[in-house]
Amino acid sequence: MTITTLSSREFNQDAGRAKKAAENGPVFITDRGRPAHVLLTIEDFQRLTGGQASIIDLLATPGARDIDFEPPSAGGLLRPADLG
To answer: What's the domain count of the chain?
Structure first.
């Protein structure tokens, strides 16, 4: 993991560089020489926060097509509707 530090000015002038650097680790963005913000990829953020990704996020994950998924049976959860 590589930690990159950019000044606010550098970040504003080249956000693409910051995003590319974030692929290799956190990017600290300084304001007047002091760390003020951290840029992370969404994957790193979710890993750090333990956040639950939505099914849409999971399906959009590169390589998701190769994941074996066997959902559990609904079993006794389903019952006929009582229309009477």
So the answer is: 1
